[in-house]
Amino acid sequence: MGRIARVLVYVTLLAASAVTVLPLLYMVSLSLQTEAESLSASPVLVPRTPVWGNFVELFERAPFADFIVNSAVVAGAITLSHLVFDPLVGYVFAKFRFPFRDTLFVAVIATMAIPFFVKMIPLYVMMSNIGWLNTYQGLITPFLMDAFGIFLMRQFIQPIPDELIHAARVDGASEFGIYWRIVLPQVRPALAVLAVFTFVFQWNEFLWPLVATTTEDMRTIPVGLTLFSQEYFTIWNLTAAGAVLLFLPTALIFLASQKFFVRGITLTGMK
Fold this sequence. Notes:
Strand content: under 5%
Shape: globular
Oligomer: single chain
């Protein structure tokens, strides 16, 4: 690649990075602006004096502490459930032979093509009939397992040599011992990818918490932020402050698991 071509590639990457990061930077800037600056006809890119009190006012005007706790409980429980069940099911589909295995796997993958809007009304009626609306179990149960997670884990587990598993069985290892001591350590990058994807998706989930909750104390951050924005729709600096709080946990989780996440994405492409 010539020097001119290299320069063009770098310029293109810098421009794409700027387009990607600029909305985030403006959101942070907006969260630190005064109400007058946030309502200015011309956008203020850098606040004259950062107003850190916007984050305090956010908690005073809305029960944001409840929103954060609810989001953490729901997203954390669903992520933990995926890390427990998705690898187990993926292991069964990858390494066990039983009648109609491939047909069942195709049926599981086919559920990915069903829009959530189609399942939402039956789920709502089901949760209503058992009295789980406006509860943690009602928010968590519909997402305890995921076809994408099962597919991802199966693809990572399948290349593990069968001879390794057979040798462990000959040595007297139990099936769960083989899964726990041999299979899981081999797929840690995939587990990191699954955890990040699941947590980010559930942390930002809006539709189901909106439908399944009826009181403010059970709202998650995306729903609570939207309600706050509707009630105080002109106070954009407080809305941006809430968006910053929504963004921070996912950014921290990605930074903490970046090594495994990048490796998992790379290996997924190689599969």
